[in-house]
Fold this protein.
Amino acid sequence: MYVAARGGEEAIQRSEALYHALKGPITPQLIQGIMESLPYLVDRVMGEASLYAPELAALAIAQSGGDLYEAVLLLRAYRSTQPRLGYAHPLTTERLFTVRRISASFKDIPGGQILGPSLDYSHRILNLNLLGDQQPAVSEEAPLPERPASPHYPLVADWQRQQGMLAPTPTHEASAPQDIPDVTRDNVLFPAPRAHRLQALARADTGGVLALGYASMRGYGLIHPTVNELRLAYAEVRMTHPLTGEDFSVGRVRVSQAEVVSNGGQHAPLLTLGYAATLGWNEVKLIAAATLDMEMSQPNPHPAHTEEFVMYHTEAIESSGFCIHFKLPHYVTFASSLDNLRKVISTFYSADSQPATAPAPQETAP
Amino acid sequence: MTNTLLSRARVLNVLASAPADEVIVFAEELLEKLGEVRVLFNRSGLIVLSATDSAQGAQFHLGEVLVSEAHVALETGHEGYGMCLGHDLVQALALAVIDAALAAEQGAAAIAAFAQLQQAAQLAADERLLRQVEATRVEIETF
């Protein structure tokens, strides 16, 4: 039961002022610096907020002092003030401007393995020299290849389908974008449409998805995932010019997607896929999410890997909001619980109580 | 500059991704030739971006993208439209003014030259990035 509480208005205002005073001023330079120097943090906030707006995500990070759940909440709240103007033409993987595309399952994939921007094989050593005034030595850049990479790569999965390793892609009647099920507007029922599942994973909390995905990987799950394809790319946001009817690109946004592959079981096809994608570049979230996608499709998944469990417990704003609401005044509900506890003690343990009605004391182990 | 590039959508395609301050300065110069410009709307909002899952072929919403858009009309009756990423109403308005100028066939040569310059810069940036990407191609050996 919730009850209203009031009081402490001045203390609340001073508390908020102190919060801001202890974290330093927010300046346009700070916001620009966050956007340029911390793109993966900005991407994480945009992905979980389900809103691509780098400048506002950087502002949210600055305004919240780097508390990511607060930053995501700020961006989601802003999103709710904006009208939905339309639907972009659906993305196709083959048209993404891809800068990183790797596979851990097959080394010789069509188009080759492109590491792109990555720290995968780097030494994780803090560069303490950067703490002082000493500027990092500018190393001479190695000459670049004459030939640029292709921005477009085929899907590894399509090649596997040609080899008979994967079942053909189920055929679906193409939906207009406005007819695709939408978790932000529909009631979510289980089993959920696949569109709901993938949208929920796209906007899910990175930490929550990782925790559940890691539980599967450690052995609570039914599969052993291998990354079939991991892709970082820029996607054109393509719209139709309302006056001429021609298509045009509004600009590019960063997107990432991952597939994991696992043994398909005793029957053909040999392999099955799990899939996830998100706004921004967030590899750990996608590998865990694609693993969970596959777990959720198993006939009898672990209770923590059912669709309902995963979708309900990886929603960043609902989960963090519910958690932190426990620090807000609960005096009446707590007092009520305490009253009940006192009644129980009075009934069963007071001098006036009947011994026959008291529960038998538990035996302790020797 | 070919006529194809002067297609309004292709010009918008290039200029929506061009530096906002340069687009705004260019549009302000055009305004002198266009007479009174009426703003029909100028607002920010969301565009839904959807994708197709490569495992089962399902379409789903990846998320929403913040954009700004503008729709303007000239005294001649010609209309222009602009849209750009982010919350930048002035940039969207500048794009709409340039689009309206193209519709009215005003300043087409200057617009073509400006768009060509911006496109060249974008292609050069893409090529440099893709050469940097090519340098990360890896041939993996197993033993």
